[in-house]
Sequence to fold (89 residues):
Amino acid sequence: MKKETEENKNQKNADEQSNSRSDSEDAKFIKVLKKIMADRNLKQLSLAEVLGIRQSQISNWLNGKSQPTYASLQNIKDKLKVRVEDFFE
Fold:
């Protein structure tokens, strides 16, 4: 039983470390997307129209409720003429 508890503790620590990395990546993505929107005077609805997605999806990204898929990142890259790498460097 004790070994199982230690394994659970180790897994929890690993999960927390993984989440902190993705939180950092999320924060970078959000910051860059907001800057692009501001630079181009795009509101959530107009960005959604450009990308062909729902405004709620943009809102979820900006509020950290969800992350863009690889396909969404490619769509952003293609439609906004930006580098995907800029979101995560």
About this structure: The helical segments are 2-39, 44-51, 55-62, 70-80. Residues 2-87 form a domain with the 434 Repressor (Amino-terminal Domain) fold (CATH 1.10.260.40). Confidence is low (pLDDT under 50) at residues 13-21.
